[in-house]
C-alpha cells in the first residue's frame, strides 16, 4: 500500500476548528454544572437583573429549559458543522419533524407522549437517511443549498397545510390529553425542565462518545481533508451519512421536548431562520467543541427570551429612537455579537479564556 | 383554463422570474467568481424594497408618483450598489479562501439586518401609493394583463440585456468572465482580480436592490423578512441554472417562476413551491452542475 507512506505530518487545522482535546478538569466542571442545574428547581434564591423571579419559579425554569433544549440541538448541529465539516442549512427540518411528528402522532393516532416521541425520532431518522443520501451527492456550498431547499419544502408544507393537519401558519397546539400529567401544567414546569436537562445531558454524552469513536475520528478527518480520507480507502459518504443521521435523530428528540415547553408546533421551527439561529448558537459558543455549542445554545435561549423583557422594562428608553428600536430585537444584538466574534474571535465564547490568557493548554 | 387565465399566469410567472433573476444573477456571479455564498444578498433586496416604500410614501417634495417611482429605482439601486461595496470591502475581503467564515459573516449580517429593519420599521407589512397607471390593465392578444406585471418583466429584461452586454462587451466584463472560468490564470496574467470582486459585489447588490424595488411593487408591500424568504428561491434558481452562469440563471429563473405560478394555481397554494424543490432535487440527481454550469471543477 503505497498510500500509507504519504506523509501524516500535515495535521494543520484551522483556528476556528481546534482538534479535540481531553482536559482532565472538563468532566469535573461539567458534572458540577449539571448538578447545579439539576437542583435549581429547589432554590428560592433570586439573581436580580438576570432573572425576574426566583430560580424555582416556573418563568425562570421555562427560560432555562428552552436554553437547555437549544443547547442540545446546537450540540447535534456541532456534530455536522464542527466535527464533520458539513454546512447544512436544513437542520431545522429534523427539529421540526420531532416537534410536529410527536404532536401529530398524538393528535391523529392517539398515541401517548412517549411512544409518539420515539416514533417521531424514527421517522426523522428515516427522512434523514433518504434526504441525506441525495444531498450528500454534492459537496460544500451545493450541499448547503440542497439541505436548505429540502427544509424549506417542509416549511412550505406545514405552512400551506394542503391536507389540513398541521394547522397552517397558526401552528398546531399541543395534544395535552396525551401528555402524562407530570409533564403538563405550569405547576409541573420543573418536570419539563428536568426533561430538558436530561435531553441536553444525554445529547452531550452521546455526542461525546460519538466524536471519540472510530467513526468520529473519520468525521474529523473528513472535515480536514475529504480527498485524503477517500485515498486511505474509506468511503466518506457512509461516514457523512452516519453523522447526518445521528445529528438529525438528536435534533428530532430536541423537537419533541421543545413541544412540551412551548405547548405547540409552529412553522417557524421548520424555517431557514431557525437553522440560521442554530448556526449562530454553535458559532457563538465555539465550533467543534461540544460544551461550547451547549453554552451558545444556553446564551442564545436566554437572550432571546430575556431581551424583549428588558426592552419592556424601559432600560433602553433614554436612547434615541433609531437605536432603541433595533436594541429591543434579540436577533440584532445576537447578529452583531456573532459578526464581531466571527471576525475577531473565531473560536467563539469557548475560546475566550484562552484568548484572555486564562488557560494555557493550547498545545 | 381560459386563455385569459393562462396569459395572466404566464405574465405573472415571468414577472416573478424577473424578480428571481435580479437577485439570483448577482449571487451566481459572486459565487462563480469568488466562491462566496453570500447570505447577505437578501439584505440588498430588502434595502431596495424599503427604499421604495420610503420614497413612494414619504418623499412628498416630488409630486408625481411616476417620477417618484423612477427616483425609487435609482435610489434603491444606488443603495444596493453602496451596500454591496461595503459588504465586500469591510466584511468579505478579509476572509478570501475561508468559505465557512465568509458564509458565517454574511449570515450574521443577514440576521442582524433583518432585525435592524424590523426594529426601525416594525415587522408589519408596509404598503405605499403607486402611480395610477400601475393599477391599470392592458390588453395583450385579447387578455387583460396588469401593468405592474409587465413593468417587472420589462425592467428585468432590460437589466438582463444590460448585464450581458456589460459582461460581453466591456473590459471589466471580460475579466469577470475569465475569472469565473479560471481565477488563478487571470491573476497570473497580472490583472488585479480583487477589483473585479468588489465590482461584482457592487453590481450584484445593485441588481438585487432593483429586484427589491420591483418585488415591492409586484407583491404590493414590504416586510423585513421578505429578502430572506426570496433568497431561498434565488438559491434554488442559482443551483438549477448552474453556478456562475448568467444565462443559466436567466433560464432557471423562467423555469422556476413559471412552474411556481402554474402549479400553485392548478394544484393549490404551496404545491408549486414544493414542485420547485423537486425540480432542484431532480437537477442535482441528473445534472449536478446545473443546466448551463461547467462540469465539476
One letter per element, helices H and strands E, the order of chain A comes to HHHHHEHHHHEHHHHH
Mean pLDDT of chain B: 87
Helix content of chain B: over 70%
Class by alpha and beta content of chain B = mainly alpha
Provide the low-confidence segments of chain A as ranges.
Answer: 1-17
| Beta-strand content of chain A | under 5%
CATH class of chain B: Mainly Alpha
Spatially, the strands of the biggest sheet of chain B line up as 1-2
Mean pLDDT level of chain A: 83
For the largest beta sheet of chain A, what order do the strands appear in spatially?
A: 1-2
Number of structural domains of chain A: 1
The succession of helices and strands of chain B, N to C, reads HHHHEEHHHHHHH
Question: Which descriptor suits the 3D outline of chain B?
Answer: globular
Summarize the amount of helix of chain A as a percent range. 55-70%
Give the radius of gyration of chain A. 21 Å
Key terms for this structure?
A: 363 residues, mainly alpha, ABC transporter involved in vitamin B12 uptake, BtuC, 14 helices, 2 strands, disordered N terminus, B: 297 residues, 74% helix
What does this structure look like?
The complex is a heterodimer of chains A (363) and B (297). Chain A has 363 residues and is mainly alpha-helical. Chain A has one domain (52-313): Orthogonal Bundle (ABC transporter involved in vitamin B12 uptake, BtuC), CATH 1.10.3470. Chain A has helices spanning 25-39, 58-83, 92-109, 113-135, 140-160, 189-212, 214-224, 226-231, 236-262, 272-285, 290-312, 321-327, 330-344, 352-355; strands at residues 172-173, 264-265. Chain A has a two-stranded antiparallel ribbon with strand order 1-2. In chain A, helix 3 (92-109) packs antiparallel against helix 4 (113-135) and helix 7 (214-224) packs across helix 9. The longest helix of chain A has 27 residues, at 236-262. Chain A is globular. The two termini of chain A are 32 Å apart. Chain B has 297 residues and is an all-alpha fold. Chain B has a single domain (3-286), classed as ABC transporter involved in vitamin B12 uptake, BtuC (Orthogonal Bundle), CATH 1.10.3470. Chain B has helices at residues 3-34, 41-58, 65-92, 99-121, 147-169, 171-181, 183-188, 193-218, 226-241, 246-267, 271-286, and strands at 137-140, 143-146. In chain B, strands 1-2 form a two-stranded antiparallel sheet. In chain B, helix 6 (171-181) crosses helix 8 (193-218), helix 9 (226-241) runs parallel beside helix 11 and helix 10 crosses helix 11. The mean pLDDT of chain B is 87. The interface between A and B is large, with 47 and 47 residues.
Amino acid at each position: 500500500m503505497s498510500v500509507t507512506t504519504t506523509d501524516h505530518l500535515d495535521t494543520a487545522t484551522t483556528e476556528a476548528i481546534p482538534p479535540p482535546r481531553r482536559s482532565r478538569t472538563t468532566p469535573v466542571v461539567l458534572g458540577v454544572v449539571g448538578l447545579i442545574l439539576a437542583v435549581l428547581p429547589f432554590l428560592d434564591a433570586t439573581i436580580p437583573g438576570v432573572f425576574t423571579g426566583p430560580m424555582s419559579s416556573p418563568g425562570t425554569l421555562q427560560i432555562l429549559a428552552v436554553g437547555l433544549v437549544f443547547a442540545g440541538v446546537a450540540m447535534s448541529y456541532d456534530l455536522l458543522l464542527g466535527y464533520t465539516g458539513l454546512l447544512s442549512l436544513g437542520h431545522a427540518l429534523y427539529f421540526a419533524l420531532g416537534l410536529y411528528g410527536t404532536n401529530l402522532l398524538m393528535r391523529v393516532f392517539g398515541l401517548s407522549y412517549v411512544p409518539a416521541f420515539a416514533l417521531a425520532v424514527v421517522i426523522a431518522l428515516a427522512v434523514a437517511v433518504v434526504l441525506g443520501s441525495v444531498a450528500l451527492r454534492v459537496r460544500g456550498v451545493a450541499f448547503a443549498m440542497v439541505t436548505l431547499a429540502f427544509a424549506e419544502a417542509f416549511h412550505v408544507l406545514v405552512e400551506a397545510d394542503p391536507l389540513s393537519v398541521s394547522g397552517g401558519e397558526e401552528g398546531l397546539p399541543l395534544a395535552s390529553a396525551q401528555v402524562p400529567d407530570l409533564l403538563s401544567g405550569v405547576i409541573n414546569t420543573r418536570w419539563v425542565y428536568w426533561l430538558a436537562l436530561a435531553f441536553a445531558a444525554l445529547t452531550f454524552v452521546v455526542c461525546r462518545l460519538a466524536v471519540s469513536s472510530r467513526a468520529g475520528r473519520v468525521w474529523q478527518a473528513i472535515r480536514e481533508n475529504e480527498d485524503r480520507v477517500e485515498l486511505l480507502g474509506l468511503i466518506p459518504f457512509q461516514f457523512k451519512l452516519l453523522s447526518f443521521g445521528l445529528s438529525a435523530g438528536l435534533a428530532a428528540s430536541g423537537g419533541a421536548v421543545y413541544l412540551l415547553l412551548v405547548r405547540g408546533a409552529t412553522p417557524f421551527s421548520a424555517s431557514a431562520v431557525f437553522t440560521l439561529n442554530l448556526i449562530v448558537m454553535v458559532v457563538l459558543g465555539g465550533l467543534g467543541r461540544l460544551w461550547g455549542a451547549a453554552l451558545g445554545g444556553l446564551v442564545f435561549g436566554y437572550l432571546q427570551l430575556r431581551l424583549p423583557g428588558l426592552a419592556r422594562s424601559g432600560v433602553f428608553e433614554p436612547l434615541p429612537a433609531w437605536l432603541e428600536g433595533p436594541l429591543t430585537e434579540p436577533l440584532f444584538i445576537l447578529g452583531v455579537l456573532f459578526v464581531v466574534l466571527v471576525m475577531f474571535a473565531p473560536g467563539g465564547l469557548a475560546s475566550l479564556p484562552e484568548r484572555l490568557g486564562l488557560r494555557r493548554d493550547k498545545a | 383554463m381560459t386563455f385569459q387565465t393562462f396569459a395572466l399566469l404566464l405574465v405573472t410567472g415571468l414577472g416573478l422570474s424577473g424578480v428571481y433573476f435580479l437577485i439570483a444573477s448577482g449571487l451566481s456571479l459572486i459565487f462563480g467568481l469568488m466562491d462566496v455564498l453570500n447570505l447577505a444578498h437578501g439584505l440588498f433586496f430588502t434595502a431596495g424594497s424599503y427604499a421604495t416604500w420610503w420614497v413612494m410614501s414619504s418623499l412628498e417634495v416630488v409630486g408625481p408618483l411616476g417620477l417618484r417611482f423612477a427616483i425609487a429605482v435609482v435610489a434603491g439601486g444606488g443603495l444596493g450598489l453602496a451596500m454591496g461595496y461595503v459588504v465586500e470591502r469591510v466584511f468579505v475581503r478579509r476572509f478570501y479562501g475561508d468559505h465557512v467564515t465568509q458564509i458565517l459573516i454574511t449570515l450574521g449580517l443577514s440576521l442582524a439586518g433583518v432585525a435592524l429593519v424590523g426594529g426601525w420599521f416594525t415587522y408589519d407589512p408596509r404598503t405605499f401609493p403607486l402611480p395610477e397607471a400601475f393599477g391599470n390593465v392592458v390588453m395583450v392578444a385579447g387578455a387583460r394583463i396588469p401593468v405592474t406585471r409587465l413593468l417587472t418583466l420589462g425592467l428585468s429584461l432590460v437589466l438582463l440585456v444590460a448585464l450581458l452586454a456589460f459582461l460581453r462587451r466591456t473590459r471589466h466584463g471580460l475579466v469577470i468572465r475569465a475569472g469565473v472560468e479560471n481565477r488563478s490564470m487571470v491573476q497570473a496574467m497580472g490583472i488585479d482580480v480583487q477589483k473585479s470582486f468588489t465590482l461584482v459585489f457592487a453590481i450584484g447588490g445593485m441588481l438585487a436592490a432593483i429586484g427589491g424595488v420591483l418585488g415591492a411593487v409586484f407583491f404590493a408591500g414590504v416586510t423585513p423578512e421578505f429578502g430572506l424568504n426570496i433568497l431561498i428561491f434565488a438559491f434554488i434558481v442559482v443551483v438549477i441554472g448552474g453556478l456562475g452562469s448568467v444565462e443559466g440563471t436567466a433560464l432557471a429563473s423562467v423555469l422556476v417562476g413559471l412552474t411556481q405560478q402554474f402549479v400553485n394555481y392548478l394544484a393549490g397554494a404551496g404545491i408549486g413551491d414544493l414542485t420547485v424543490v423537486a425540480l432542484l432535487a431532480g437537477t442535482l440527481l441528473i445534472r449536478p452542475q446545473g443546466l448551463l454550469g461547467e462540469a465539476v471543477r
